[in-house]
Design goal:
This protein has five helices and ten strands. It is of the alpha+beta class.
Amino acid sequence: MIFIEDELVKVNGVVLPGLVKSIEVTEAAQIDEQEVEGSATKPKQATGYQDATVKIELIIDDTATKTKYQHLAAIRAIFRSPGQAVPQPIPIVCEDTAAHGVDKVLFKGLTHKAESKSGQLPVTLDFVEYIPQTIQTTKTTSSKSSNKSSGKSSGKSSKQSSSSGASSSLSSDYKSYLSTKRGKSPAVDNASTAKGANRIAQMPS
């Protein structure tokens, strides 16, 4: 948690060391320029708003308990703790940021500049407004696919059963047809007569 109270900045309950020199909050619109062939002017189009930025400037010096570099190390531990790979959103409570509607920020940058003359460390903390994005996902139920697959399989099985049934019935009818007396061919019927025998004999071999 980060908040400002009595000109003091606290991050996760730890008071930032040094003197708060300034707090700056910036908001800006997103403006795109379009190229028009044959025209010297570039039409501008507003497409939205940029995330607000927050800049806090501190002046760090030696104290009775710690050196300025030990204070700097404490600030860096807040900026990036050991093992931390991705910056996490930090709630911010401050009249200056609240005036811009900023309630969460990401720790974007940490800069210090050593000044040999004064012996103090000017430190700049940069934050950017954090706006969570909601991503809607759709769930696909497996019942539809299972119903489709079961419908296809049932259709196939019904077709297979009907074809197997038809083939079995045809087989039985065909067997019944073969078992009945179906008569003889004319050549066999006439072979018993003399006239039929002569016709068979006259046929070319």
